[in-house]
Each structure stands twice: as structure tokens, then as C-alpha cells.
Amino acid sequence: MSDGPTPERPPGWSAEQPPPYGAPPASPWTAPGSGPEDVPYGQPYGDQPPPPPYGAQQQPPPYNPQHNPQQPPPPPPGYGYMPPPQALRPGIIPLRPLGLGDILDGAIKFIRSNPKAVLGLSGVAAAIASVPLAIALAVLNGQMLSMSNDPESIRSGDYLSNLLAGYSGVIASTVVGFVVTTVLTGMLTRILGRSVFGGKVTPGEAWNLVKGRMPALFGVVILVGLIMLAPFVVLVPLLVVLVANTSSAEGVAGLLGLTLLLLLAYLVYMLFFYTKFAFAAPVAVLEGRGPVDAMRRSWRLVKGDFWRVLGILLLTGLLASLASSLLSMPFSFAAQLLTIAGAGDGGAGVIAISAVLIAIGSTLASMIVYPLQAAIAGLLYADRRMRSEAFDLVLQTAALEQQRQGWVHSSADELWHPSNAAGS
């Protein structure tokens, strides 16, 4: 065999000369029988895949629609990787902008974190507001049932007097409920302000903290109520005049259509101002503002996030109404059955038992609904301040200091003051 140049042996090749890109020399620390000289030339070392042929085109990685070429991918979990830190949560909510789940969870934790104060105050307020209403409804139901059983014996004057007597009790109960729920809202809001940091407030301490804010709180509720009822000053006389001057069937149909349109317009009006002034009560209590200033502050906080605030208020209001109905329905149904069963006797005992059943059901429902509504309004207010004023940084700084000291001081209530707001 010739040693001359061949296609496998280029010119200048020599047996003493190693081939180009040959295998590296064996390491002196390699155990016998395991060195690189045992690996055939051109084969990969260990379990590594073989390199692609020279000049072969590399296949691109599979397309990832979520990959942004201008942003480097996050590092894989492993050595040196640290997940993002969790938001500080000393109390019922994380100290960051809140989502719907955070608000609902915080409202439930608000009740569970201080049940004696929250449920105790709500129960007392609900009983005070429910008893007059229960008596009025029981009497009204008994009168209506008696009149339906013997309609010929009831003159029109007696019919109107019975209705006025029943509804006067309902109106009186509504006024009592208005006063009681306003006071309760102020006290629950003050308890909520401390619960955000994980602190607790006794009912007596809550009253001492909020009693100086009661005039402003009543002023807010009265002004908002007047704004809500203002359209009736024009609509009610207008409808009375139209009813008096309408006699034909076409006119009655047109009047019904106009009434529906006016009711729809009033619904839009009510939802708009209800959302705009949703934070007026928390502002009056926590920030120490006057009624008009609190309403202006609420208007500014809602600005830019109206639809989100409206949606959360409607959803949580629907959930609260559903919970209230489920809790009070068995007692109301039992009272109705008792009234129907004892209609022939017409005794005061039936009315009294019906009133007691209605009061129990209303009290149980209000014990849950009142604190939920107050907590949702207060947490939404805190969320808007964190989103629009970076108020979460103020809360986090205070929470870290309280953790260092090991307790929640009453000075935490001062953090809600408007001086800590960037846009106040």
C-alpha cells in the first residue's frame, strides 16, 4: 500500500503527525481505563449530545407567543433565584392595591378578627332598628288580612286609617334605623381603620374615638339623602298633574310609558351619586373632615375609577342582600303562616309572636349585613387612596414600625389623616 496522498490523506500528511483537532491528551488525574483516550475519535464525551455537522443550520427554538424579544426571560428557579416578596399583611388586608377578592376576604376577616366588638355592636343596633319595624309590619299584616277576610265590613275611612296606622310605624322605624345605622357605620369604620394594622378596638374605645365625628357623619348622610330624593320634588307633582288630566286609554298608556322612563332616569341618577359619595362616610370618620368637604373628597377619590367602584358596590350589595334574605326568610315565612293561621282569632298574642319572629330574622340578617357593608365601603376607600396617592407606602412604613415595636399603638388612627395623602 502506498503512503502517498489520497483523498483521505492530504498532501504533507505524515504518520508521526497527529490529525488536526485531535483528542486532547489524557489528564494525569484520570483513572486508568476512563480517560479520553478510551473515547473513539469524533465521539462526544459523557452523555452530551453530538455536535451538529460543520455548516449545518441551527434549528431555531420553538415559538413562544408570550416571549418578548426586548425583555429577557425570567431566570429559572434554582440557585440564585428568589421569588418576588409577598405584600406586607399585618391585618385583614395586604398593604397594596386591592382586588375584588381582597376586598371580600378583608370584609369577612374584619368580622372574624374582632367578633365581640363588630357583631356585638351590630346586634344591638339591628335589634333597636328591627323591633319597631317588626311591630309595625306585624300590625299592618294583621289589619290587611282582617280586611281581606271581611271586605264588606270595612268602610273607606277605616281602610285608610288602618293603612296610615300601619305605615306610620314603618316610617318611625325607618327614622330610628337611620339614626342607629349611621352611628354604627361610624363606629365600625373606626374599628376597621385599626384592623388594617392588625389591632383591635373595644366598643367603648370605638365610641370615644367616633363620638366627636357624629355631627359630620349625620351631616353627610342627610346631605346625600337629600340629593337622592331631590328629583322627587319635581317628579311627584308632575305625575300627579298628569294623572289628574288623563282619562283616555291612550293617555293612560302614555303615562305608564313616561313613568317607566322617569324611573329609569332616576335609577341612573341614583347610581351615579351613590357611587360618587360612597366614600364620604369613611372620609368624615377617618380623615376628620366636615360633611361638604368629605363629599368633595369622595368625589375626587372616585374620579378616574368610577366604573370599577360602581361594579364592586353593586356586586357586594347584591351579595349582602342575598345573605340578608336567606337569613331572614325562614322567620318572615313563619310569621306569615302564624298570622294566616290566627286570622280568625285576631288576638294580640298572634301579632306579638309574629313581631318577635320578624324581629329575630331581621336582627340576624342585619348583624351580618351591616358590618359587611361598612367594611366594603372602608376597604374600597383605602384601595382608592393606595391607587391614587401611593398610600400603601405610608401604611407599609407604619406597619413595619409597629412590627418592630411588637404592638399596634392608637397613633395608627392618625395615619388616615389627610396630611398623609399626596393629593389632599
Automatic annotation (TrEMBL):
Sequence segments annotated as region (Disordered): 1-86
Question: What InterPro entries does the entry give?
Answer: DUF7847
Indicate yes or no for the key word Transmembrane helix: yes
Determine if Transmembrane helix is one of this entry's keywords: yes
Membrane spanning residue stretches: 118-140, 160-184, 216-240, 252-274, 306-328, 348-381
Q: Compositional bias of type Pro residues: which residue ranges?
A: 17-27, 47-86
Tell me which residues make up the DUF7847 domain: 101-381
**Keyword annotations from UniProtKB, A to Z:** Membrane, Transmembrane, Transmembrane helix
Name the domain of life.
Answer: Bacteria
Q: What is this protein called?
A: Glycerophosphoryl diester phosphodiesterase membrane domain-containing protein
